[in-house]
Structure to design on (420 residues):
């Protein structure tokens, strides 16, 4: 088969795929869970490839992929079935990747690494000598929290997810997640204050 | 994070799915916005004592004033288009084009305002009272279209809520200022530049700060 013929075939395959995804998303907007499950599972390898081209840290990859799906879930009302599906999906994925990288960049600027290995110097003014101890204390205090509270604090405060997104990730209701996060913050504050006093 | 947790997330998402109301098309929204502007115009005409009152202002007398009017109208159309298209994923190209149009409108309006300053008779002292009156009228006239744009931003998916809010309030203020400039009979140099252009746009930019923060907060807690 010659190259033009192959390209035409792949173009037709992409169009057929786009039409299928578009139909599933239209059904999803009407509340069809089966169509949504099919759509999400077919999108997974596509989204992973998309994210892999932009995120070079393997430890971060799956987090970003999950954020793309959370963004897609939240933005599913913004799809119009008469428009092509792929550009819509790519725009959501691009924004989710940018948000996540920007958030992590800001966090890295605020925080000091526990050990210097493999972590870039923060692009901020010199920090007082005691500050790295605070970062280590926070890490220790976080590790001492019950798993559910630690997860809630990490998802909302460290990964920057919204309450709804974090609740979906954790598989609990929003109110349950809020309660866990609130208890987590309170416990963290207590532990950090006790550490400062001692 | 392990790949199996992504699979689990997808299962949870598909279980969580509820029917949603799709966003209206951009064409439909633009028509709605135009209808709202039409309503505002009708109201303004009623207050001004008929349609003739809408065009009783200074712009028709000189090129500089017409340039200012055209610039404000372009800025309003561009910023409104930018706010609408920016809230719909996949319409980035249209959003960029609209923002460029808004920028061009601002440049044209600035050029018109500067030319007007050079040619019109300057007032002996700063006309704050009349300028603030016209600026307040501009904002009042832009209230309904601005509310519509902000409502759409809250419903849509603008990735940068602060920019969206700035475009929405800017579009509303520029649309109001266009109407005021077309109908205001005070042709003092400073009054036109301050009351029909600088003050309403500056107030719109200020209003965008808390509104953008609100939109960003609503997005985080949604």
């Amino acid at each position: 088969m010659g190259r033009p013929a192959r390209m035409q075939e792949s173009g037709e395959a992409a169009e057929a795929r786009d039409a299928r995804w578009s139909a599933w998303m239209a059904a999803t907007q009407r509340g069809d869970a089966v169509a949504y499950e099919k759509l999400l599972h077919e999108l997974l390898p596509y989204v992973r490839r998309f994210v892999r081209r932009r995120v070079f840290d393997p430890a971060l990859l799956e987090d970003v992929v999950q954020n793309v799906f959370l963004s897609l879930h939240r933005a599913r009302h913004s799809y119009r079935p008469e428009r092509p599906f792929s550009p819509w999906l790519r725009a959501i994925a691009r924004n989710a990747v940018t948000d996540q990288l920007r958030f992590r960049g800001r966090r890295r600027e605020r925080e000091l690494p526990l050990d210097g290995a493999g972590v870039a110097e923060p692009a901020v003014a010199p920090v007082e000598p005691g500050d790295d101890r605070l970062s280590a204390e926070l890490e220790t205090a976080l590790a001492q929290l019950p798993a559910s509270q630690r997860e809630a604090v990490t998802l909302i405060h460290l990964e920057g997810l919204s309450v709804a997104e974090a609740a979906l990730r954790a598989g609990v209701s929003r109110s349950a997640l809020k309660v866990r996060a609130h208890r987590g913050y309170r416990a963290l504050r207590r532990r950090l204050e006790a550490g400062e006093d001692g | 994070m392990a790949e199996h947790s992504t699979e689990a997330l997808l299962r949870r998402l598909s279980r969580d799915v509820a029917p949603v109301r799709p966003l209206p098309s951009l064409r439909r929204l633009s028509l709605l916005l135009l209808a709202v502007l039409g309503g505002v115009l009708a109201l303004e005409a009623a207050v001004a004592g008929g349609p003739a009152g809408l065009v009783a202002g200074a712009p028709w007398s000189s090129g500089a004033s017409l340039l200012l009017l055209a610039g404000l109208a372009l800025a309003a159309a561009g910023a409104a288009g930018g706010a609408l298209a920016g809230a719909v994923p996949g319409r980035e190209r249209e959003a960029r084009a609209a923002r460029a149009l808004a920028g061009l409108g601002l440049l044209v309006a600035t050029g018109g305002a500067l030319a007007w300053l050079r040619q019109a008779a300057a007032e002996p002292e700063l006309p704050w009272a009349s300028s603030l009156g016209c600026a307040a009228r501009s904002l009042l006239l832009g209230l309904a279209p601005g509310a519509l744009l902000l409502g759409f931003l809250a419903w849509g998916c603008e990735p940068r809520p602060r920019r969206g809010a700035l475009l929405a309030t800017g579009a509303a203020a520029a649309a109001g200022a266009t109407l005021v400039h077309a109908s205001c009979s005070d042709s003092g140099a400073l009054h036109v530049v301050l009351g029909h252009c600088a003050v309403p746009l500056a107030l719109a930019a200020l209003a965008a700060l808390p509104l953008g923060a609100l939109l960003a907060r609503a997005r985080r807690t949604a």
Q: What stands out?
A: DSSP finds eight helices and no strands in chain B. Chain B has a mean pLDDT of 90. Residues 61-221 of chain B form one domain. The radius of gyration of chain B is 20 Å.
